[in-house]
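Much of the work behind modern protein science is quiet bookkeeping, done one molecule at a time. The protein below has been through that process, and both of its lines are reproduced in full.
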Amino acid sequence: MKALEQEIKELIISSLSLEDMTADDIDTNAPLFVEGLGLDSIDALELGLALQRRYGVVLEGEKDQMKARFASVAALAGFVAQQRAAQAA
């Protein structure tokens, strides 16, 4: 899971053009939106598209589900891992 978390951190940096940050600057468990990394709704759309392209995940669901999935890098990694397992089954 650590490798996936690292990949997602790098994906966040590249897809959102956060050139002044490194993966080490992003706390795995910190919130991505408002506090923490401080992303906004446009960033969420861009990140969602990047996740779909890179991992083939399907981002569907209720607003609360989506908020939970995008809560932190750890939450995103768990969601991607779950989607990969479902695709492999």
About this structure: The domain at 2-88 is CATH 1.10.1200.10 (Non-ribosomal Peptide Synthetase Peptidyl Carrier Protein; Chain A). The chain is about 60% helix and 0% strand. The helical segments are 2-15, 41-55, 63-69, 73-88.
